[in-house]
């Protein structure tokens, strides 16, 4: 698909819900001394795919399209995909980097230990949305600033979730397998293919992505439910027709389809364990583009095998990249992909523009868009608490 | 997914667009003499899948759930999946059947020759929507009535089309292949994965299914175009924001995604040949759940191979079942399935109820719902002309 893409309309403006109030006192990073900075970016390598699309900015080769701009200002810009183990390329730069740019798609895990050794580190930027690969408490304690390109790929992820809902409800993959294996057996697909219309879809979390999903689900005439800490404003609730469920355990048994749209926090890590999955309808379909670690890996495998889960689709795993023997690769009724939903070409253009904007502000000592802050002046944004 | 399904709300009411005006003069079939009728149903066989779902009515074993009802009234009901060749089961019953029930999913091709030999035939019912497997001219000339369960699966098909659009735009299948083959290469997917937002989607045909698709596309913030013989009523045009394109050749070059939503007629057979496909954008994505014969089979293969078509998805083929060596099974960037979109469990419940309703009216000498008629009193419905 050769499309005209406009990076200019990229960064969407959303009402801030970061929970960080405005402040004119800048953190250490924004008082950074002028002069050359060492910036390290960790992105997935594209190899032969790098040259196939001029807008492919999110890979190591594309390097967000900011190399020339950075270097022309005298900054040093190291980009690598090599992020694991004591001898990796990233490790070499930990002691003297000022800024680390990472992504959720190929996460550079920023541990407390790495933060301690990064004496010059001031700023951690996530190219995309989702900074749980960073030890936020340790970052806050060290006075670092952590920021994302909030909103840069929420549409991308919400669209992808709706695709996965349909793939599971319609039982797409067994049909595709028949095609490529020379078979034709309509019954083998149809006996468990349904319309989405009339089904009950519940989202666990109704932040930016959850709300966009609900808006896109609206014309499908489903029963829409959402669980969150807070009720949506009445206008949006009215617009989507979604019903608030204060108690997650009360919502789960009602849902034909459950979509996970909550950040990974200490509260949500392993939330969907054997007990939680047992509360759901037999044959429930689950879509999870949030984070793999929100699920108990083995509980998902067991429930897919027993039929308690009728289908599981998502693009998030723990760890990432998923090892060759990750059991979700081989469980029945899965429709998984690598971590991809937030890194469409359109999303890359937006988060590349957002990172460049924040770097520019950082060099100039200016504040970031408020909703981008994840850690600021020792405080962690409320959605990560 | 274990769901409560209500057949009662099944048959949707749509404004009639069949183009056949009401008439109190009944055709031969509706003057049929009272007494026992021989009814033959041709459905796909489900074998081991038949018992897996009590609502699986659309298979030969399920037989639309009307056997007991028919036999209790003294009618004979033969059901088979064996529909091809001179010695097939269907052929045995051609000389003396009164009613033939067939489906688009496993089409019993009703040729002029078969109609000539079917001396007792009065009524041809399509369980579903799409009666192009019947020679409608020959049926009209013979004074037969042909009727579908109009509207019974239009939601099912429209949902499936949106799924296929997303599967192609998001480049889903290469990611899934990586998962099951133990790989992880985000770049190999991302270099041609896009958001649907902002893209131009054109539907060729904006009848019932096309309109439902446009309604479901509305929240995705695309540029929506439609080509049809007639402009939609302004309210619906306004509601979907879709723009009318009178000239198909003028619409095609604007579209990132083209969806085929036109019946198969003499005008549309082979419509998308090499020349037509060449008018589209390089890398266009095509979704076709209408009929396989609307495409020139080899032109699609060639364009997928050259990259002129960036992705092709649909569930319709010519002929059906698609032979093992059908080239669409093996062309690049396809996301095909067997003919499945209109035979979800929900759709089966609706079209089974609709067929039962029409048989009941036939036995009682009552008129069918007007929009269901495809051939009546020698006239063919306008959408098939």
Can you give a write-up of this model?
The structure is a homodimer of 385-residue chains. Chain A is an alpha/beta fold. In chain A, 28% of the residues lie in helices and 14% in strands. Chain A has helices at 67-72, 89-93, 112-117, 136-141, 154-169, 172-180, 186-190, 208-217, 234-240, 248-251, 274-278, 297-306, 345-364, and strands at residues 38-42, 76-80, 99-102, 123-126, 145-148, 200-204, 223-227, 243-244, 257-260, 284-288, 309-314, 373-376, 379-380. In chain A, helix 5 (154-169) packs across helix 8. The radius of gyration of chain A is 21 Å and the shape is globular. Chains A, B: InterPro entries: D-isomer_2_OHA_DH_cat_dom, D-isomer_DH_CS, D-isomer_DH_CS1, D-isomer_DH_NAD-bd, FDH_NAD-dep, NAD(P)-bd_dom_sf.
């Amino acid at each position: 698909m050769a499309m005209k893409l406009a990076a200019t309309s990229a960064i969407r403006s959303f009402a801030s819900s970061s929970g960080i109030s405005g402040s004119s006192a800048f953190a250490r990073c924004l008082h950074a001394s002028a002069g050359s900075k060492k910036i390290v970016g960790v992105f997935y390598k594209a190899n032969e795919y790098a040259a196939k699309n001029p807008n492919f900015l999110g890979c190591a080769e594309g390097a967000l399209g900011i190399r020339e701009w950075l270097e022309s200002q005298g900054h040093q810009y190291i980009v690598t995909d090599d992020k694991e183990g004591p001898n990796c390329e990233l490790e070499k730069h930990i002691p003297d980097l000022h800024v680390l740019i990472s992504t959720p798609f190929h996460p550079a895990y920023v541990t407390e230990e790495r933060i301690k050794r990064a004496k010059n580190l001031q700023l951690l930027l996530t190219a995309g949305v989702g900074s749980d690969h960073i030890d936020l408490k340790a970052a806050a304690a060290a006075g670092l600033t952590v920021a994302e390109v909030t909103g840069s790929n929420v549409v991308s992820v919400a669209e992808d979730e709706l695709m996965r809902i349909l793939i599971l409800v319609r039982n797409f993959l067994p049909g595709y397998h028949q095609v490529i294996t020379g078979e034709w057996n309509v019954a083998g697909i149809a006996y468990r293919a349904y319309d989405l219309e009339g089904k009950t879809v519940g989202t666990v979390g109704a932040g930016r992505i959850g709300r966009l999903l609900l808006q896109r689900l609206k014309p499908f005439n489903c029963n829409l439910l959402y669980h969150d800490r807070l009720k949506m404003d009445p206008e949006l609730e009215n617009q989507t027709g979604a019903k608030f469920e204060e108690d997650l355990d009360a919502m789960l048994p009602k849902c034909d389809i459950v979509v996970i749209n909550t950040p990974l926090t200490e509260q949500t890590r392993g939330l969907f364990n054997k007990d939680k999955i047992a509360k759901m309808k037999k044959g429930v379909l689950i879509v999870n583009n949030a984070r793999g670690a929100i699920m108990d890996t083995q509980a998902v495998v067991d429930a897919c095998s027993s039929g308690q889960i009728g289908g599981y689709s998502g693009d998030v795993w723990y760890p990432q990249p998923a090892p060759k023997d990750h059991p979700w690769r081989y469980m029945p009724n899965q429709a998984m992909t690598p971590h991809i939903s937030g890194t469409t070409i359109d999303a890359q253009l937006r988060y590349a523009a957002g990172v460049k904007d924040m770097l520019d502000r950082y060099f100039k000592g200016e504040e970031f868009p408020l909703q981008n802050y994840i850690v600021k002046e020792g405080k962690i944004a409320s959605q990560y608490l």
